[in-house]
Amino acid sequence: MVLDVNGVKHEVTVDPDVELLSVLRNELDLTGSKYGCGEGACGACTVLINGSPSRSCITPVTSVAGKEIITVEGLEKNGKLHAVQEAFLTTDPFQCSYCASGMIMSAVALLKNNPAPTEDAIIKALNGNICRCGTYPNIVKAIQLASKP
Amino acid sequence: MQHSTNLPHPFEPTQDELPPKPGHHFELDRRKFFKLFGGGLAVAFVLHDLFSFAGETLPPEPSSIPTSQVGAWIHIGEDGTVSVYTGKVEVGQNIRTSLSQIVSEELKVPISSIKMIMGDTHLVPYDAGTFGSRSTPQMGTQLRKAAATAREALVQMAAKNWNTAAKTLQAEKGTVIDPANNKKIGYGELTKGHQLLLPISDQASMTAAADWKVAGKSVRKINGRSFITGKHEYVSDMKLPGMLHGKVLRQPSYEAKLLEVDVSKAKAIPGVIVVHDGDFIGVAAPDVRTAGKALQAIKAKWDESTQHPSTANIFEYLVKNATAAASGRNAGNTKGSVQQGLTIADFTHAKTYNINYIAHVPLEPRAALAQWKDGKLTVWTGTQRPFGVQQDLAEVFKLPKEKVRVIMPDTGSGYGGKHSGEAAVEAARLAQEAKKPVKMVWTREEEFTWAYFRPGGVIEVNSGVTNDGTITAWKFTNYNSGSAGLNTQYKITHQQIAHLPSDSPLKQGSYRGLASTANVFARECHITDLARLIKMDQLHFRLKNSNDERLTAVLETAAKAFGWNSSAKSAGHGFGIAGGFEKGGYVATCAEVIVNSDKEVKVVRVTQAFECGAIVNPLHLENQVMGSIVQGLGGALFEAIDFADGKIRNSGLSAYRVPRFSDIPKIEIVTIDRKDLPSAGAGEAAIIGIAPAIRNAILDATGIALTTLPLLPNGVLG
After folding, report:
1. Which residue from A minimizes the CA distance to B93?
2. Cβ–Cβ gap B661/A123 under 8 Å
3. What angle (nearest 5°) sits at the alpha carbon of residue B409, between those of residues B408 and B415?
4. Measured between beta carbons, which residues in chain A are less than 8 angstroms from residue B631?
5. What one-character-per-residue DSSP string does A105-124 give?
6. Which residues of A touch B444 (CB under 8 A)?
């Protein structure tokens, strides 16, 4: 089957019921999306599928054939960081940063639909992403920095 | 019943801090050193001066430093690159950044010219591990001195070159400058052609915290870009040519005994390697999926007849199976006569506090990648003790330590939960058989079940107080939780404090703040109860009995910022406060809760004052303190391991609840920058105040004195 990841089409031969996360990480060497729980409960594996934030650890790869998949590796364009990445770099909220990719992808999806979210909207949109280091208030600040004034 | 989890075992984590071990793995001599790192100038930490600095004269041969005395070194290469070698590791506490700041400050080099080499047993000096909040006070201090020694040596070398007095010269931005004639020479140029190895000098003059220009500032994470682009390679992301993926057959319950096993179907799967060695059964395959299928194809029969205690009876069990009180450095204080103290009290108060087991839940589960080459083993793994894991591997595979290299890339957190090296041993055993590199990445379920927990415990407190606010008696008995935070910080004449280890049915080990998350909870709950008995304000009662001016300072600071005396309290609202100190950090936490008519409790706001000496990086300190409050909130309100029949019943993130965005109250953090005091760590003490502060606020709002952690497993007052 063909997967459209970060604007590049990849021909992959995989078991039909394998999860997208496993294909991204093990077949395509896109390891920015992380395994955290395997049940869609922590958000570390979040990618965009046709613009929607999705938990790639519970997404069968066959369900995304022909769809546009964006991972954290696809945000940077020609060496220029995405505005959300810039905001996270400036705010520097992360400790171990293992949740960073998922947080950033969830934030990118939120801001695309709602460029100036309220704090409540940010909390609602990101509530599926766990940061075990617990710096949630500073993650909210980073997303606010990336928001349109 | 005795559990094998309490027997000594090479992978057994320690419940308390590990004692520092002398290192003896690294035969450091000058020639070897420079062969490894190239020429230039190096400054190593040693306790006794073995070399005297004598200009360009090389140290006498053979010059070797007893490795037990080496803790860190800095090397300045001929190209001016500054390399810092330390056994400390990065698990998100941002020590890579703060140690760089310290070296940049003292050596007078741009932070961008510093390369930090961390946690690689073949490159860095022995280190017992990254725990106990020691990185900042101990490693930070050593590197400060090393950098200052190097700077002074470089200035002296320039003075000699220019035939002028060292004291007229200045060090700045990686160069030595003569202000008299604006002559300038780079550090790299100065060290060219030299192989100078110097001991750290205690005489080197260091920059006072008040004059810091790089340290003390909110420098951003130095490798931050690699994380927000997804490029940083955690161990679980690493790949080697020909690498296989490993899986290990786990027991269906703790202490289940293998009766029979048939691995033939697994072996028949193309590309699959099966290892059955003693009680270890594992597989490796070219992809994770095939490894999973191979594991499923193994038919095993188990004896699960062992009886296990469960969540329902664990507290009785721990008290019943307690052993004699811990002695030595883990013993509690005893003075006066508790009996006499109780007799003279106006009120006596006895309570028992129960502490559930909780999990660290590092978002990156245990992972290791092992490679054998020419009889040598290299393992990349996320561990807080690379040298400890090296030792484990050397013992298991009967290798001299020089043949085992453990490398720790920056890892997806630990919180005291990654002292052990299980995945490293598993990957290495599979790779040995496969003759190919093998990567093991634990599943979340494995991490919940086969790692270790913050201990559960029972704490009995029996105390007395007089109407004037004097605590007359304090008997404090802790079963199983551990000894950190055991002793009281209050003025009490008659006290009897003990920690009694017990037979833990679950594997237990270190955690953020160690046992102080349990001991400080019990103590600070009980203190508020005593204040209520004599109708004294709980803040005032603490200040009256505080035995430590730094504790008093954080209590006053937190109370002021919170508005303890000035804030109006609406119906259903309650205020609570708690404080303490651990590992050089001082904390006081105020919490406000609201309890509605359905007995639902909401934590409205938290104000925490924190002081850990001179602040090295204010932003990263804030993240550490904030993270501690949030992690502590989970243990305070709802985190608990649920177990029965030797199985963990909530071994996934959908079942074990950790704090999320929507759980977070308004948090205000006030840090006190004591530039006159040495810097201490911040990852531990900041967690201890939140649970008792919330409990005391619930008591203030409702009159209900909760005694079990977590306080509200179902979100409502029971």
Report:
1. A95
2. yes
3. 75
4. 132-134
5. HHHHHHHHH-SS--HHHHHH
6. 36-39
Could you give the CA distance from residue A146 to residue A112 in angstroms, rounded to a whole number?
11
Confidence category of residue B33, pLDDT binned at 50, 70, 90: low
Chain A residues close to B289, C-beta within 8 Å: 15, 18, 22
* A129 → chain B, closest CA residue: B660
Chain A residues close to B447, C-beta within 8 Å: none
Q: Is A36 on the interface with B (CB under 8 A)?
A: yes
List, in order of start, the domains of chain A with CATH numbers.
2-74 (3.10.20.30), 83-146 (1.10.150.120)
CA–CA separation, B683 and B384 (whole Å): 14
CA distance B474 to B462: 6
List the structure tokens of B490: 């209050």
Question: 3-state DSSP call for residue B625?
Answer: helix
CB contact under 8 A, A22 and B288: yes
pLDDT digit string, tens, across residues B406-433:
999 999 999 999 999 999 999 999 999 9
Cβ-Cβ contacts under 8 Å, A134 against chain B: 626-631, 633, 659
Q: Which of A92, A124, A141, A145 is the mutation pick for testing B, counting most B CBs within 10 A?
A: A92
Task: Note the pLDDT tens digit of each residue in B541-584.
Answer: 999 999 999 999 999 999 999 999 988 889 999 999 999 999 89
All structural domains of chain B, each given as residue ranges with its CATH number in brackets, are 30-228 (3.30.365.10), 235-304+366-441 (3.30.365.10), 314-358+453-709 (3.30.365.10)
8 Å CB contact of B92 and A122: no
pLDDT band at B7 (very low <50, low <70, confident <90, very high): very low
Note whether B290 contacts A: Cβ–Cβ < 8 A.
Answer: no
| DSSP one-letter string for B545-605 | HB--HHHHHHHHHHHHHHTTTTS---TTEEEEEEEEEETTEEEEEEEEEEE-TT-BEEEEE
- Local structure of B469: helix, strand or coil: coil
SS3 B413: coil
Instruction: Check: CB of residue A33 under 8 Å from CB of residue A23.
Output: no
Of A44, A85, A90, the CB nearest to B363: A44
Cα distances (Å, whole numbers) of residue B712 to B627, B637, B693: 20, 5, 14
Whole-angstrom Cα distance, residue B416 to residue B316?
A: 27
